[in-house]
Amino acid sequence: MAKEGLGLEITELRLGLPSGPRSVDKIKEKKRVFSEINGGDGNGANSGDRDDYRKSQAKSQVVGWPPVCSYRRKVYSLNETSKMYVKVSMDGAPFLRKIDLGMHNGYADLALALEKLFGCFGIGEVLKDADSCEFAPIYEDKDGDWMLAGDVPWEMFLESCKRLRIMKRSDAKGFGVLESKGFLKATMKDEPK
Amino acid sequence: MLKMASSFPEEVLEHVFSFLQSDGDRNSISMVCKSWYEIERWCRRRIFVGNCYAVSPRILIRRFPDVRSITLKGKPHFADFNLVPEGWGGYVYPWIVALASAYPWLEEIRLKRMVVTDESLELIAKSFKNFKLLVLSSCEGFSTDGLASIAANCRNLQELDLHESDVEDLSGRWLSHFPDTYTSLVSLNIACLGSEVSFSALERLVGRCPNLRSLRLHRAVPLDRLSNLLHRAPQLVELGTGAYSAELRPDVLSNLSSALSACRELKSLSGFWDVVPTYLPAVYSICPGLTSLNLSYAIIQSPDLIKLVSQCPNLQRLWVLDYIEDVGLDALAVSCKDLRELRVFPSDPFVLEANVSLTEQGLISVSEGCPKLQSVLYFCRQMSNEALITIARNQPNFTCFRLCIIEPRTPDYLTLEPLDVGFGAIVEHCKDLTRLSVSGLLTDRAFEYIGTYGKKLEMLSLAFAGDSDLGLHHVLSGCDNLRKLEIRDCPFGDKALLANAAKLETMRSLWMSSCSVSYGACKLLGQKLPRLNVEVIDERGHPASRPESLPVEKLYIYRSVAGPRFDMPNFVWTMDENSALRLT
Predict the structure, then answer these.
(1) Is A23 within 8 Å of B443 when comparing Cβ atoms?
(2) Global pTM value
(3) B233-265, pLDDT tens digit by residue?
(4) Residue B551 and residue B577: Cα distance in Å, rounded?
(5) Residues of chain B contacting residue A132, judged by C-beta atoms under 8 Å apart
(6) What are the φ and ψ backbone dihedral angles of B273, each rounded to 5 degrees?
(7) Which of B351, B408, B467 lies at the smallest CB-CB distance from A18?
(8) How far does the CA of residue B363 sit from the closest CA of chain A (Å)?
(9) Hey, is B90 helix, strand or coil?
(10) Cα–Cα distances in Å, from B516 out to B477, B496, B513, B533?
(11) Which Gene3D superfamilies match (chain A) (predicted)?
(12) Quick check: A79 contacting B, CB < 8 Å?
C-alpha cells in the first residue's frame, strides 16, 4: 500500500498525555459544546441565531445524537407531542389536506410526508437539488406572515406554524430572492425531537 | 489425504456436516478440499449475508443450489440514528426476484435494515409454497397491503415479525386476510403498527392457532381486550401487551390478573405503552417465571419498578428506562442474580440536565451484584474513571459494553480528566469483549488501550472522540478481530486509513461520517483496493466539484465480491479506477 505523504510518526506510539490545553478548553466549553457541535467540522455554515436559540433551549440539535434509534424516538414523540394538525394547501391541487406536525421528526420527515400526500411533485427534490424543484414550502406563522419553511429550528417551527402552503416557485417573483437553501440545510441538519 | 476423503460416501459426509450449523464451521469445512466444498455447498440450507452488497444473488445461487433460510442485512447500523440519508439503498426486491426463481422451497427470510416494498412482499407470498418465517427488522418501504398478501397466501406461515419496522399503516384490515383455515401461527409481532385491527378477527386468529407461542401486540389493543386474547392462548411463552391502560374499572384488573396467572409458560413480557400503574399488580403472579422483561417504553417510576423487579428472581434480560434510577438498579442487583443483559434507555435524551437520579452508581451496583451480567447498554449523564475501573474489576465477563454519556466529550466528573483510563480498564479486564461503544471525553490514549487489549473486539462504535489519526491507527492496527467499525465526528483523516488500507479487506465494513477523510484519499483507496467498495456519500454535490483535499461528508467502505452496485442515488459514488471519469 502506498505510503506517500506519511511520516513514520504514525507508527510511533506515544504514551504521554495529549499535548496542549485542549482537554481544559473542552471542559470550559462543556456547557456550550453540545449546541456548537453542528457548527464545526466544516459541515457547512450554520447561523449564529440557531446556536443562540439552542443554548437557550438547552436541548440537543445534533443529528443522530444521543444514539437512540429512530423507532424509539418516534415512540417518545408519540408519548409527548399533542396533536398538531394544520391545513396544507398545494397550488394546483383541488382540495386541501391536513397533516399532524407532531407526528414528524423534522423537516426531512415532513418533506417526505408532503410528498406522499400530494404525489411526487418534487418536494423531496428540494433535498437533492434546490434549483430543480418548482415548488417551495411556505407556512403561515402566528403573526399571520408567510415564511419559507426550513430557516428556524424544528421545534420553533412546530410552535409557530399555523398552516402550510406548497407554492409554485414561479409565483414567488414578487418575493425577492427565494433562499430555498434554508429548507435544504435544515433537512440535512435535522434533529428529530 | 485425497484418497481418504473420497473413500467416505457422500451421504456419510453430508450426515456429519449436518451437525455443523454455524457459518464459520461450514466455511471452514468447505475449504478442506474440493470434494468437501462440493458436498457442503449442496447441503447448506441456511445462509447469512451480513451486507447485502457484499455478494450478489447470482453468486450466492450459483454456489448454493438448495437454500431454505436466508438472512440479509442492508443499511449500516448508523442508519438507526438517521445518519444514512433516505434513498441510500438496501433494496430487497432484486434479491426476492432471484430467490423466487432459484429456491422454490425457501422457508425463511430474515431482513434487517432493508427497503422492502409491497411488491416484494407479494412476490414472497406467491413464490414460496412452504414459506414459514418472515422477520422484517427495522425495515421500511412497505404497507399493510403487503402484509395482507402474506396473510392471505402463506398457508404454512409460522412466524411474522415486524420488529421495529416503519410500516405505512393504511388500515388494520390486513389481519382479516388470514383465512379461517389458517392455524399454523407460532409467533406474531405487530408491535410497531398503529391502526386498530378487528379485535374479533384477532381473537379468532389467536383462538384457532394452538401452537401460538409468541404474541406481541401493538398500542391500539387496549388492556380490556388483552384478557380475552390470553384466555384463548394460555400456552403463550412471550407476550407483548398493547396499551397498558384502560378506564379504571374494577373488573379489568381482576380479569387481567386471572388471565395472566393462567399463562403458566410465560417467560417474556414487553409492550407496556401508556402504563396506568394501578394495573401493574396484574403481572405479579407471573413475575417469578419471567426471564425477559422489556419496559423500555413504559413510563413507570422507580418505586413501581422496584416492586416489579423484586419479584423476578429468574430475570435474565431487562430493558428499562432510566426512571429506574440508581435505587432501582440497587434493588435489581439484590433480586436478580441471574441477570445476563441490561439496557437502560434515556427517558429524556435531548435535555442536558438530568431529569432522573441515574448515575454511574447504578451500573456499579449491577456489575457487583449480578455475576452473570454479560451485556450492557447504559445511557447516563456522568461517569468517572474510578467507576469504570470498579465496574471492569467487578465484571470481567462482559461481552458487550455500550456506554453512552449523553453529552459528547464529557470528562470524568470527579477529576475532569478524559475517560481513557476507565475504558482502558474495561478492555483490559474484559478479555472476551466483542462489542464496545465508547463516549465521553477520550484522547488517542483510549484508542491505544483499545488497540492493545481489544483483541477479541468485533464491533466498535466511536463518536466525538480522539485527537488525531493516531487514534484510528491504534484501532485498525491493534484490533485483530475487528469486523465492523463505525465512527462519527472524530478528527480522523487520511493517514491512518491509508496506512491500514489492507486491514479494511479483513472487515465487513467501516463507516465514517463528519470526520476528516479527504476525497483524494477515498479515490486512492478505491483505486488500490478493488475488492472494497468505497462509497462516498455527500449531499452537497459531487466531491469532484470541490478541492480534493476537502473532507467528504460520509464514507462507507465494505468488502464485496459483487463489485460496485448500480442502485445508488445521486448523492452516493463508488470510488474505483473509473471514479475520476464518472461524474454526476
Answers:
(1) yes
(2) 0.79
(3) 999 999 999 999 877 677 888 999 999 999 999
(4) 20
(5) none
(6) -80, 150
(7) B467
(8) 19
(9) coil
(10) 19, 11, 9, 19
(11) Phosphatidylinositol 3-kinase Catalytic Subunit, Chain A, domain 1 (3.10.20.90)
(12) yes
